[in-house]
Amino acid sequence: MPKDSRVLYARLMTSALERLPELLLDAVFMVEEGGRIAFVNPACRAIFGYAPEEMIGRVILDFIHPDDKERTIAEMGHVLNGRPGLGFENRYLRKDGSVAHIMWTARWSPQDRLRIGVARDVSERKMAELRQAGMLSLATAAHRAEALPELFRAFDEILRDLLPLRGMVVVLQPGERVAYASAHEDAAPHEAAGWRHVTLPASGIAFGEMRLDLQRPGALSAQEIDLLEFAAGQAGAVIERLALHADLSHAARYDELTGLPNRRLFQDRILSAIARCRRGQSRGALLFIDLDDFKQVNDEHGHLVGDQLLHAIARRITSCVREADTVARIGGDEFVALLENVADLAQAEAVAGKIRQVIATPLALSGRTLQPHASIGIALYPEHGEVIDQLMRHADQAMYAAKALRKATAA
């Protein structure tokens, strides 16, 4: 190549290399030994939101996320000592306050006394990784949750790392019940004020809403919306699971027709009552209550009227005892009342007499007037037994004796 051509080629190459940083999508920095920015190419505007002239002359540490400064200073020291920095990642604060995840390649130029680095914005990849990890954490929290406050407390912590979240309020239907709150909700929050409402769905039912207090108003990104919808779906599934568990637990312990404790729960209650009586050396009473001629009601008026009668009888018995006492339905037309701290047989008989009188009050059901009657047997603790079987046997025998006496008297 002729000399003139070589000179021209060198000038062209020099000019092209000088303009090359303007064409790069990555940010190119030249930083003085003390940390002051000497040069940055135009790509800094797209990555950090600053024009080059807004960054040149400032200390680079001013732009670094506070939580990453310490380890970034350590990495800078390694580069100054001659070790190239390859793939180091840290966070910077953009001009709008948002976070940029940056991956660096840097080296120290002794002849220029400059640290030269190329910064690549990996925020999209990093946020995708964080969202994936966040979704896994949300799913894990949902799987482990045994109570709603525990669930939403975990969701709050996880979402704060993924969204500009200041706090949340969770309301459930029906009744707008507040299940969790880590933020003060205005009387009428709306999205323009920075609030975002997300429905909690499961099986086509809306169980309530997560109301999120965001640091910035306006639209969320598609990825952020997907994340919130995933969280809401997980929460809805937990609410449904806990509700089903509560329903099953209630059904296992309570009579579906009357709402009274069933035989299983009654046995737990009487065991506890016997233990308290034993510790306190006090008396208790068991009343065995059986409706007279209940089969005749079903035969003459139908099972619907029979069910209505049982429901009414349950309310009437409950109205005759103290709140601390237990009324249970243990069979078709058989009820028991468990009385604690009973002074003597006379007190138990007085309660039984009140129950008989209240039950015998005429009752209008489905256009018919019925006058039910009940036979009641009484067993005292500890006189008539110190275990369930003994007390139940005595009360049952006393009930049949009362029923026989009533029939004999009626004849």
TrEMBL record:
The lineage of its organism: Bacteria, Pseudomonadati, Pseudomonadota, Betaproteobacteria, Burkholderiales. Residues 13-83 form the PAS domain. It comes from the Bacteria. This is Diguanylate cyclase. Residues 282-411 form the GGDEF domain. It comes from Massilia eburnea. PANTHER family: DIGUANYLATE CYCLASE DGCT-RELATED, SLL0267 PROTEIN. GO terms for molecular function: catalytic activity. It holds the Pfam family PAS_3. Gene3D superfamilies: 3.30.70.270, PAS domain. SUPFAM superfamilies: Nucleotide cyclase, PYP-like sensor domain (PAS domain).
